[in-house]
């Protein structure tokens, strides 16, 4: 971009860091490149385009919109003179930006037409350097895009606030219940376009498309008001593969925030009728043309799934304490009462015989947390409070290594996944050694593959599903045993008995018993990630069952600790209780930690 049209097309700008123009003859300064670094010769038909681009760059650099960038660039100096930057005796307290090596690196990147990564401590001048380069080389406006180690290309294109959409819908339902005749409430829209904003790259692409159409950005936005004219221009420019409806939907929200004439333009764009339905693949399953389904019997009629009953065995434990006259030792008698029950589920076929079984969890209200009298309870589990949970589907078992391996080979969305991360190998063992971000990526890939909304459970959903109508420390009753749960049997819960310490995970469903909802392994084996940010107690916790977040950041932008539930093979039984909570850094992994998924479309069907 620093090359511009002069005689024989040889002159380039160099960056000296002093705010002045410095041209060089490229053929004199640069040796002949190796074959792998050669550039194509400029063709005669390219010259008008090069001239046109250079004029636009100069126009942009001098435009009022670029004044802020110009001022930043003008104020920046690597040094007052180039020789000062070369001085080895220069003040060491000066930022590292005052080194001639920086100038060399910048110019090398320019001449080789390759990106340059600039690193340094806060205040060392990284941002100022970018503005100075843009100003001195007349590159135009700086594209500002804050990124982290987990930033993806999709973040630059657009941001989709799925959590805000879900929370708005939950509030909408609550308000509708209280005010069923409120027209404003009834007409509220949850269209996905209201929860998407253009990122810096998305904005740049808008400019690129406008240029393709021979328009500036303002003219392009104006064209969005007239779909027929836009479609006609598409045909003239042979751009039929571009779908401008994405920009019409997303851009209106951006323009509204700008206010003034832009907000008026957004209103006009919204009034324009497009003949084609707006679709945002792969997010089309989130269109909120909704009907609410109460999961009580076979009332679900979505043709994309088949709800079917399944039978399972439930165990309830009772204990009786007896003190013998001639023996002061307290002895516990543990009785296990077995019964058969039936629930509903659907089966997600992944490949061949590999399946994911999703159990129907009905809507209900329960008391989350514990009273002070429950043994080994902590302040993390209080105050006890009522929570109403909407219906959903939950994995019958924790995600297995076979299921993980299948999803890990699906196309990447936000991050890479190790297809075989687990320490304890076995296709039917739970996957472990996965971070919270890994689990979120798994859900994203599974959602795109199946067309359904898979995610991690909220903490309230997890405890509600684990308890399955019980109020005892475990869904089994007052205690657990190692013939029903995989935990550290060197420890006993209260007056119970010790048992086996297996020192590893077991295959999911090995013990053959479930809770009243039909879920297996909710206690022990592996800790399970929940969606929520960690909180030290339940003060001000939501009462509608949704995930409790400290901010509306996208999931992959979240930092800090998330919540774990259920305990593991390594733990004392007291931390395997239904109410027990733990926190762990989102990016950490361990052979104690896995997860199970939930599917939210039981609450909202497209």
UniProtKB/TrEMBL annotation:
SUPFAM superfamilies: C-type lectin-like, P-loop containing nucleoside triphosphate hydrolases. Residues 64-95 are annotated as: Disordered. Residues 357-598 form the Sulfatase-modifying factor enzyme-like domain. Transmembrane segments: none annotated. GO terms for molecular function: formylglycine-generating oxidase activity. InterPro entries: CTDL_fold (IPR016187), P-loop_NTPase (IPR027417), Sulfatase_Mod_Factor_Kinase (IPR051043), SUMF_dom (IPR005532), SUMF_sf (IPR042095). This is Sulfatase-modifying factor enzyme-like domain-containing protein.
